[in-house]
Amino acid sequence: MNSYSDATTQTELPTVWLLPKALYVLEPEATALLDQVNQRVWGTVDPALLEIIRLRIAWLIGNTAGMRARSSPARIPEQKVAELPAYATSPLFSELDRDGVAFAEQFVMDVTGTSQDSLDALRDQLGSDRLRDFVTSVYLVEFTQRLQLMAQALLPAVPDLSDAGRPGLRQGSLRELLGSYQDAVVRSTALDPITTELVRLRCARTHNCRICQTLRMADAQTAGVDTEMTSKIDFYETSDLPEPHKIALRITDAFIIRPDALSADIVGPARATFSPEQLAELCLDITKWSTQKIHVALGTDGADGLPINEDGVVLFGFQDDGRVAGYWADPEHPVVVPTDQGH
Q1: Number of compact structural domains in the chain
Q2: Among 88, 95, 262, 319, which is 20 to 30 Å from 151 by CA?
Q3: Distance between CA atoms of 305 and 303, rounded to whole angstroms?
Q4: Burial tier of 31 (Cβ tally within 10 Å: 0-12, 13-18, 19+)
């Protein structure tokens, strides 16, 4: 892979989280909210620590443009950037740097391997109250980069539109702002519920989120998603699932595993099958469902207390504003069960 330090192509940016223009045009509300979440992240976590984590993640997922970029508020010396591959032993990295980058590596490569020891080490240095914000920041730095790569590859050029309708700057904690972004993503309706559910479950199974694997979207079940269909997700390429569903799952796999491996063999059929609006929604859906990684890392992804039916699943749905309407075992008796987990 390319070196972190390439002085001939290096670019200093005040906002390294900016997305491809087409995504702002197609999903103005959600993308504006995601910008606000990222702005809050870089104001919540030490930008110097976040920058070395961002660069390490860029290398892990093959984001060469991200490796060349530099966050201007962070002001990381280039000598330190050059020694990032040796962060575990280099004297230029503090104990928090080492623990933070090591956690981020595990989070990106296999979140289920996140250890209690790594969480305890970060908790000792950051404090319990800041630990969740730190984990959330790693998720955002990872998935914003993934979104940049995937949207750039999948979305065609679109006419520039005004910023009318984009929400103003919102107040709230990092957690509250992320929730507002997730709600906005859910409010998009370009994709059909079957595709949405198959993508959600593919994310859940890849990240091994316990609660998300237990949940089933009620409107998807009404549309025809049953146990037989969901059993094909793990082996979708050799299954008889319709080709549009397979294309959506291929995009999901590239997004959450190696976005730099997205090939023309996937992009071409994707553009021929889905509209730009649908592809934009699909990309944002994957970021929304993948917030489950925060819960998996923190061990808060259990389904305890939810009403599980005889099939071993919990039905759930969303209100018009994008928030969860409730969880239920019996469709005739939905109940709201307070829960902090992803879905």
Answers
A1: 2
A2: 319
A3: 6
A4: buried
What DSSP designation does 115 have?
A: -
State the pLDDT at residue 306.
85
Domain extent, residue 212, equals 190-328
Q: Check which CATH number belongs to the domain holding 259 and give it.
A: 1.20.1290.10
pLDDT at 337 over 60: no
Let me know whether 319 and 211 are in one domain: yes
pTM of the model: 0.92
Tokens 């005040």 — which residue? 14
Answer for the pair 207, 296: CB distance below 8 angstroms, yes or no: yes
DSSP secondary structure code for residue 335 in this structure = B
CB 82 within 8 A of CB 5: yes
3-state secondary structure string, 263-290?
Answer: CHHHHHHHHHHCCHHHHHHHHHHHHHHC
pLDDT of residue 164: 47
- 147 and 197, same domain (yes or no): no
How far does Cα 189 stand from its chain's mean position?
19
Query: Within the chain, where are the H helices?
Result: 21-26, 28-44, 47-60, 64-68, 78-82, 95-109, 116-126, 128-154, 174-187, 193-207, 210-214, 218-223, 227-230, 243-256, 264-273, 276-289, 292-298
- Residue 227 shares a structural domain with residue 316: yes
Each residue of 199-245: pLDDT tens digit? Answer: 999 999 999 999 999 999 999 999 999 999 999 999 999 999 999 99
Report d(CA 204, CA 28) in Å as an integer. Answer: 27
